[in-house]
Amino acid sequence: GGAKGNGPTLASAAGSLLETWPTSASSLSSDGYKDLYVYQLDHPTRVLEWTSGKTICVAGFGPDRNEILELHLPPKLFADENKGLCAERDFKVVHGGFSDGPVHRLRHIQGTRCVVTNNGRSSSLQVWDVGDDESDVFRRTSSIEGAAPLAGQAAGERGSQVAAGPSPQPCVLHGALLGHVQLSQLASGDTCYTLETDSSEPLSALQFVSPWVFLACCRNGNLFAVDTRSPSLPPPTPVPPPPEASTDPVHWGMHATAGADVAGCRVARLSSGAEVVVSDLRNPGGPARRALLEVPADGSAGDHLRVSWAPALEDCLAVSGFDGGVQVFSVSTWGPEAREQRALFQHRGHSVLPSERSAPVRTTAHAWHPDRPRTLLSAATDGSVHVWDWVHPGAAQD
Amino acid sequence: MPEIKVTPLGAGQDVGRSCILVSIGGKNIMLDCGMHMGFNDDRRFPDFSYITQNGRLTEFLDCVIISHFHLDHCGALPYMSEMVGYDGPIYMTHPTKAICPILLEDFRKITVDKKGETNFFTSQMIKDCMKKVVPLNLHQTVQVDEELEIKAYYAGHVLGAAMVQIKVGSESVVYTGDYNMTPDRHLGAAWIDKCRPDLLISESTYATTIRDSKRCRERDFLKKVHETVERGGKVLIPVFALGRAQELCILLETFWERMNLKAPIYFSTGMTEKANHYYKLFITWTNQKIRKTFVQRNMFEFKHIKPFDRSYADNPGPMVVFATPGMLHAGQSLQIFKKWAGNEKNMVIMPGYCVQGTIGHKILNGQRKLELEGRSTLEVKLQVEYMSFSAHADAKGIMQLIRMAEPRNMLLVHGEAVKMEFLKGKIEQEFSNIVLTINLKHTFLTYYLEKGTLPDPKKPRTMHGTLIMKENSLRLVSPEQAMKELGLSEHHLRFTCRVQLQDPHSDADTLHRIYMHLKSVLKGYTTQHLPDSMSVMVESIVVKVSSSTEDPNTKVLLLSWSYQDEDLGSFLSTLLKKGLPSVLC
For residue A97, which of A63, A124, A133, A58 has the smallest C-alpha distance? Predict the structure, then answer.
């Protein structure tokens, strides 16, 4: 079951699991994984961004020079019918580059071989050409400047959120504050849209859900569904008040299901207090599904909280950053009242495997594979990156 | 200017065979002599015509060094020494010398007996070749002749694998062969001292990969074995007597013990004794853990793994069998395979590469119907699994090795330059003094000693202190004070180096010129001129001048410096090797 993380219990559980993870069951056949790959990067990453169905970008976030790598996933993962005949389990570094500062956000722009990065300290974006067959080095092609920071804007809130713009024109949506959101053309850096508002609310997420509509989520949980065809800011969908009166300040992050139909879009907002609110864009203010996740939520998660919908599984959400794990939840049983919900599956590899670090390991990012239903990647503060394909508990494992 | 020439030999494509010629200080050395396993014609041998168009190689080579027993590193050795012709010394470690002929003979059998080839070496040639071998011990300097010396270092990877340092005068080259920077269950990790070779030559096959952990590879292996055995099936694991087999046996033994499993595990007759014999003989080549437990219990005497008897193959029920040979081309493993292939509950796990033409190769390419001798066909219904357990260094490993050895120049062989610009940038960025070249097959490369940068005199130094804990009190004192209190004497490490200069002046004048030169270059440092002792001093570095006895115009500078001034000392030695400027202000 899921350890609820009281110091000594977790440590002793981890200790006994150290030699045996993931096998704690009587048989390897039911250790919970169909596939499992464990890698160690030289430096931890907090980004995991797909650049194709088989390649992913990671990047360091140390204070000075950092590497950005485009990695090709192990061929064995994709071998399917011929899995037995494929022995290749390694990541291949297909392209690499050097960034002068930390990389806090990295977005791939669909339809191009470009990625956009932000260092988490300012609103400027770097645009990179990932490279092709002729060279394996990333090239920095240009920068896109965002809005200047406001006096009094906290240092930790100066980094811009970044989202890929809608096709066909390659563009990028970015901003650190609600009032600074703009859509810029990738090639020229020209602004083709700005959100008309003075609001200085810090943002925690931006995402396009259709060619015209994007979602902006603020740290306080307010959600805005903005139509770029009309310049004004619509009213927000706030988060419902917390179930227990809590004095700890919480901040919220968001992810929406992808798809061309805005009407069918669902938005999940996750708080640092481990509460989740699922809203329907058809009826944003209407009854939501809510839950209090059974994860250690001691407020220490900081900047590493992530929530994302499974692109190829009905009603599944993954959450990471609370501890050294990634938790998968099914929202289908959730109702309008925020009740405690247990994870359907927990990936604990990052915290139970021996690490060179003495500090507790925390997951920094996770990403679902775009079309393999249960394949995920996860990364942690000790530089580990795992690729795993989990088995629905109760289902027979292959 | 001293020059080192490196020429990878070969026809055909890149990866698959190692054979590198190095010219250093007038000596010619061949590093490895591998066979390309993918070709069936002469392309599998290196192209020795580069050395000489006709005739024997003996007068052109000072020695041949073989790094380890894998065929892509030693497979062409008997061909080179007996069919092309070479009578000089062939160096390799003791385990390599013991194991090489076994693999060569095995390989010869497949190629000649099974595939009917004619232009190939004979059993006698293998024997004659091995007579020319001079075995090497780790860390022992061997004088090949008056000028050429070699030294072997532990490389991990397989039993007996070595990295080699080649030294002629003050120039040196280190060749890594295949190495591994992470220890496994029976071998340790590669290690080398800060020998600072002028050139480090390393394979780059896995340089752009990030390896999946051993834990996951093992999990996959154990999972497959366990699943098969649970459903009542039989698992065949064809192996060479030495190599990965031991690793997998230790793994299965541990797993069977932990999970309290009952299905029998066997290894084929002959394999146990041979493996045990070699591992016992070369116990110092295994890792710490094995050596430690060896006293109480032989790591290779297993509780759950028993010797196999032919008749067991027909026993009902689950079992796991390790059988030789490794590519299913003959012998016991093939016999067992034929019996078990028709049942889909069974499994064969191939733990390594299989040469073209063998059954192993065919089934790994998906063939499900095999033609056997006597026109009979075999339907392959069992599950075929290909797993790679080989231990190679990846990008991280290469960086670790560079940090250990601190080469001035580096050459990565068997890589594609276009696909390795990033790694090149990474290495050059971390080790700013290094010059790195990625090799392309036939390229001729020459190297020059690299300059290096002047260390900053104002560089902040970390504070060094010693914490003394005595009777619940803590004191922070200087290291010198601590040593005094403990009654320890401090060891000082000094480096010395000789540089030859052509200078027609008197010793005293040369000394003065050196003093002026250093004074102008080393701004921020205090350079002292000490004519009484014929020396110049800066920090702890002393440069002493004297004339060569044969020729008064040749000056010999003796440089010496303490460990603390390593950076500046190295910089000065490189600087002075370039000679003195003709005009000094």
Answer: A58
